[in-house]
Amino acid sequence: MAAALDYLSNVDHRTIGLSPQYWAHTPLLIGDLVSLPLINGVDCFVSCTSSSHENDAIHEPPQIIPLSKVVLQGVITAIDRRPNGCILLVLDDGTGSIDVRYWDDSCNQSGAFDFMELQKPAAFAIGDYCEVLGKIKSMTAGAKSFCKWVNPANSLDVRLECVREVHASSVCVMNQDMNSEVVHWFKCLKFTQDVQQHKIKGGKDVLPLLSDSIVSSIFSADYTVESESGNILERNCCQTPQRFKRALLYCHCEATIETLDPIFRYRDALLNKLLDMEDKLQTQSRSEYHSYIEDCIDLLGCNSNSTSLPLLFSFESIYKDEDLSSLAKDIVSSTLVPEANARQLVQNTFRAMANDGLISLFDTDADLYLLLSVERVIEPYLRNSLPGAMPFFIRNISKKRMNRLKRWFESSCDSTMC
Known about the structure:
By secondary structure, the chain is of the alpha+beta class. The chain has 15 helices and 14 strands. Strand 2 and strand 3 (42-47) form a beta hairpin.
């Protein structure tokens, strides 16, 4: 095991989730956050140890800690309230500034309990000092370089100067806490010091603590062995329409639960609507988003003349659809605040479908989403993609789902001799 660990890095995708720090909200200065390198597609904090300097006889590799969530503090310098319910903030802490995207849920709390609204949601203004907890989202990758920090045989794909934003789960005004900024800076410095002193454990450091059976399962061909019920097209576990299974390789059994719509009435109607829109999409000239479609096709490595066009759609077009709007209101009609809950249902369904790998936010400014259908997005990507070239909307698909899609594609190629 020790010999094997020498060739393993903390950014190996099989072990990233073993690191407790990957799931924790890490205190960072904004200047450090925007300068994080993207290593093997993962946002990482890199810190050199005291023995990594040029004048030392022993050269140890830098400490690389993958991160996914952060705690930021700073002053709000701009606010843009988008029509889709999203609030875009610009946060500045003196070391840099970053966009923060926030969806306020205070009016409903996901529908678990339907209390009347007690105060105006998102009560913050320009000039407020706030604490933000959220997920790091890399929007574009910067210049590509290769580093051999871990082992000469294991070079890392490193991208610098990436464009990032934070998708906030909490925005809290801290105007009354006079020393909160000082405490936050001390926490950021403490985290850097802990990384340098090897107090923060990565996935590679956690592996020796696990049993041999667990370790072997982690490295067993990326979970290629799947039960008989793993083939979604042959499942009889739920009432998922066959249309969804064929078009998306999707099953309700693996869907993110929505308390306002536990039997997925709205999701089913929305998916049927999107698949109908996709079927009607024949040429780019018939779509108002033809320039975005061209960009999507280029990212997939396809030729627009030889591939079916992917479907791009806006949140507003779905929210204002009369049939879907009527259905949403009918589903939440028995709640205390049906009008607010109807909009909340639409937002929650979009968020859940993105989490399940069915749709992906394609362009934030235009508020465009991409339907990740098998025929028009997944299969063209798997057929034409180059090693290491992964579009941002493919990266949003979970590894488990992506592995299933790859196995389906390989089996379909074997059966058709493609």
